[in-house]
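Lab manual, section 2.4: Encoding a predicted structure.

Procedure: take the sequence of the chain (169 residues), apply the prediction step described in section 2.3, and record the output as C-alpha cells. A sample record is shown.
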Amino acid sequence: MQNRKMAPKEKVLEELVVEIKSVVKVNKGGRQRRFSATVVVGDRKGQVGLGIGKANEVPDAIKKAIQAANKNLVKIPLIDGRTIAHEATGVSGAARVIIKPASEGNGIIAGGAVRAVLELAGIRDISSKSLGSRTKLNMATATINALKKVKTPEQVAALRGKTVEEMLG
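Recorded output:
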C-alpha cells in the first residue's frame, strides 16, 4: 500500500466582517488597547457561522474571528433554496430578532448584522424585525439562534407522528 496524502476538501465559505471595534483593558501601568472583530462566514447554501476574535492588530483579530466562525457553522434547512419554512424568534442578551418567510421576489428585508447573517446563509426572501438592544454581536447571535429553531415540514411531521400531507391539510 502506498502512503498517499489526501488533499483536504476545500470549503468555499464567504466571509463578511460585521464589526471591528477597539477594546480597552485598564492595567496598573495604563490602558491596554486591543481590537475585537465580529465575522460571519457562509456558503450561501444553508451554512452560516459567527465568530469573534481579539488581538493587538486588526488583521490578526479578523483571522481569529474567521477561525472561530468556521468552528461554529450551523446548517439551515432552506425551502426551495430561497426562504425558511416558518416564523422563528431568536434571543441573545437584550436583543430579539423575529424572522418570517416571504414570498418569492421580496428579497431580504433586514438591516445591519441580521442582513449579513441571512445573506451568507443563502436566504433570498425573508422579512425580519429587530427588537430590544441593537448591538451588532447580539443581533447576529440572535439571528443565528432563530435560524437554529427552524425545522422542515418533514421534521415537524415526524415529531408529531403524521405525514406531511396530513400536516399541510
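Check your result against the sample. Residues 14-74 form a domain with the Double Stranded RNA Binding Domain fold (CATH 3.30.160.20).
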